[in-house]
Automatic annotation (TrEMBL):
<keyword id="KW-0812">Transmembrane</keyword>
<dbReference type="InterPro" id="IPR011055">
    <property type="entry name" value="Dup_hybrid_motif"/>
</dbReference>
<keyword id="KW-1133">Transmembrane helix</keyword>
<feature type="transmembrane region" description="Helical">
    <location>
        <begin position="21"/>
        <end position="47"/>
    </location>
</feature>
<dbReference type="InterPro" id="IPR016047">
    <property type="entry name" value="M23ase_b-sheet_dom"/>
</dbReference>
<protein>
    <recommendedName>
        <fullName>M23ase beta-sheet core domain-containing protein</fullName>
    </recommendedName>
</protein>
<dbReference type="Pfam" id="PF01551">
    <property type="entry name" value="Peptidase_M23"/>
</dbReference>
<feature type="domain" description="M23ase beta-sheet core">
    <location>
        <begin position="202"/>
        <end position="296"/>
    </location>
</feature>
<dbReference type="GO" id="GO:0004222">
    <property type="term" value="F:metalloendopeptidase activity"/>
</dbReference>
<keyword id="KW-0472">Membrane</keyword>
<feature type="coiled-coil region">
    <location>
        <begin position="56"/>
        <end position="94"/>
    </location>
</feature>
<dbReference type="InterPro" id="IPR050570">
    <property type="entry name" value="Cell_wall_metabolism_enzyme"/>
</dbReference>
<keyword id="KW-0175">Coiled coil</keyword>
Length: 304
């Protein structure tokens, strides 16, 4: 390949001869320059003659899509917040009812309100490590706080329930009160003159006189261990209350329970009479503790 170079006035001329790979390098360089000039011309023409409304429309469409996505996310977040708010209000109402119930139960049971203080916030604390995502939203913080309160209240109510059941069972099986709803004390526990012989003897129970056929009631819950005739006692009911306590009800006209029956405190177990060794209608009432007779008067006084 020969390249002829002329001077400006054409007076001088130079010949440049290229051979082999040199000529291909020059050709490639020329083609590349031509393509670059054409691309630049096309870009310049596009910028100069393109419709600006097309670019604006494209930008508006993109903005509209982003705005719709933002509104959708905001609506979903608001719906979640509304649901959390409703749930929070429901939990707060339930916590208030639990507090009122707990305070009422403490008053009824006569327990220490310092130990079961449902008006006070539960004790919380301890070291905590900071996390890198920032503080939780207020709603979540309130829900966590209420969850801790409800857990504390639930624990208190479970313990209170166990204490009340234990106390009720203890009261149910502990002898207390009079064995009759109507009647009067006709003979006390201890030394007295025998009504048949006039001799000085020891009376191991107390007698309550009343109208024949009036109710005789159990002074505590328990199991009937005997119900029937027994020598001087006449028609006798014997009840085992556990914890070593046994009560006896003698001289009954008729019996309302049988051996093996479970009775509750205040239940009618017999009707007053004068069977056995008796001068008139009454119930002879005895209390035994671990097999030994004790004065029933202290259990009668305890009920007043």
């Amino acid at each position: 390949m020969n390249i002829i170079l002329l001077s400006r006035n054409g007076a001088r001329r130079h010949n440049l001869q290229l051979q082999g790979w040199h000529q291909w390098l020059v050709v490639g360089t020329g083609v590349a320059c031509l393509l670059g000039v054409m691309a630049f011309a096309g870009f310049a023409a596009g910028v100069r003659y393109a419709d600006p409304a097309l670019f604006i429309s494209t930008w508006e469409d993109e903005l509209r899509n982003q705005r719709e996505g933002l509104h959708s996310a905001k609506d979903q977040a608001q719906a979640n917040i509304d649901a959390l708010t409703i749930r929070l209000a429901d939990i707060q109402a339930r916590a208030t009812r639990l507090d009122a119930l707990g305070e009422r139960l403490v008053q009824i049971a006569g327990l220490d309100d310092g130990e079961f203080d449902f008006a006070a916030a539960p004790g919380l604390g301890g070291p905590e490590a900071e996390i890198g995502i920032g503080n939780a939203p207020d709603l979540l913080a309130q829900l966590n706080s209420l969850d801790a309160i409800l857990e504390e209240r639930e624990s208190q109510l479970r313990l209170l329930d166990r204490l009340m059941i234990t106390r009720q069972l203890q009261e149910e099986v502990t002898p207390e009160g009079r064995p009759v709803n109507q009647g009067w004390l006709s003979s006390s526990y201890g030394q007295r003159n025998d009504p048949f012989t006039g001799r000085r003897v020891f009376h191991r129970g107390v007698d309550f006189a009343g109208r024949p056929g009036s109710d005789v009631i159990a002074v505590a819950g328990g199991i009937v261990t005997f119900a029937g005739k027994r020598n001087v006692f006449g028609n006798l009911v014997e009840i085992d209350h556990g914890n070593g306590y046994v009560t006896r009800y003698a001289h009954n006209k008729s019996l309302k329970v049988q051996e093996g029956d479970t009775v509750r405190k205040g239940q009618v177990i017999a009707l007053m009479g004068q069977t056995g060794r008796a001068t008139g209608p009454h119930v002879h009432f005895e209390v035994l503790e671990d097999g030994r007779h004790i004065n029933p008067s202290r259990f009668i006084r305890a009920s007043r």
